[in-house]
């Protein structure tokens, strides 16, 4: 059973088809659901999600995402909003944004851009978070 006090950092580089939710974000939501099913609160677990590599596109604003990937909407944004409401920290790698050619202005509003995914991951591990890669 899920125990209160757990801390986990999801290292997400997973790609997703433009119309699909990224599996790293889905895994974070599943973990929250497991806690809920066990009678726990979202605050009983601390979750950080670090997006980089192919997962970087998950945080792009609609007006940037739609024409670039030829889909109706970015399917990740509603889940990201829900995860953040539940207390999940979500970061995108600034180096990956640059490498992928996405300007910071293309990132969804109020979204933390980290200097690097590596530093967030290392810092959270130093804070006692367990490490879960989602390649």
Summarize the model shown.
This protein is α/β, with parallel strands linked by helices. Helices cover 37% and strands 19% of the residues. Strand 3, helix 4 and strand 4 form a beta-alpha-beta unit.
Keywords:
five-stranded parallel β-sheet; alpha/beta; globular; 135 residues; 5 strands
Walkthrough of the structure:
This protein has 135 residues and is of the alpha/beta class. It is 37% helix and 19% strand. It is built from five helices and five strands; from the N terminus they run βαβααβαβαβ. The protein has a five-stranded parallel β-sheet, sandwiched between helices. Strand 3 (89-93), helix 4 (94-100) and strand 4 form a beta-alpha-beta unit. The longest helix has 15 residues, at 23-37. It starts with 5 loop residues before the first strand and ends with a strand.
Mean pLDDT over all positions: 96
Low-confidence stretches: none
Count helical runs.
5
How many β-strands, per DSSP?
Answer: 5
Q: Largest sheet, if any?
A: 5 strands, parallel
Q: In which range does the helix fraction lie? A: 25-40%
Strand order in the sheet with the most strands: 4-3-2-1-5
Q: Oligomeric status of the shown chains? A: single chain
What is the H/E string? EHEHHEHEHE
Give the N-terminus to C-terminus distance in angstroms. Answer: 26 Å
Radius of gyration: 14 Å
From the helix content, strand content and strand pairing, which structural class follows?
alpha/beta
Shape: globular
Strand portion: 15-25%
């Amino acid at each position: 059973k899920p125990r209160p006090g757990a801390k986990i950092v999801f290292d997400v580089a997973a790609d997703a088809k433009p119309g699909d939710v990224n599996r790293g974000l889905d895994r974070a939501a599943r973990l929250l659901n497991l806690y809920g099913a066990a009678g726990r609160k979202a605050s009983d677990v601390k979750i950080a999600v670090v997006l980089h590599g192919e997962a970087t596109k998950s945080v792009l604003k609609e007006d940037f995402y739609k024409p670039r990937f030829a889909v109706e909407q970015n399917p990740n944004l509603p889940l990201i909003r829900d995860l953040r409401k539940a207390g999940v920290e979500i970061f995108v790698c600034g180096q990956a944004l640059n490498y992928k050619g996405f300007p910071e202005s293309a990132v969804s509003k109020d979204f933390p851009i980290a200097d690097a995914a590596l530093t967030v991951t290392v810092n959270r591990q130093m804070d006692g978070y367990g490490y879960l890669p989602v390649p």
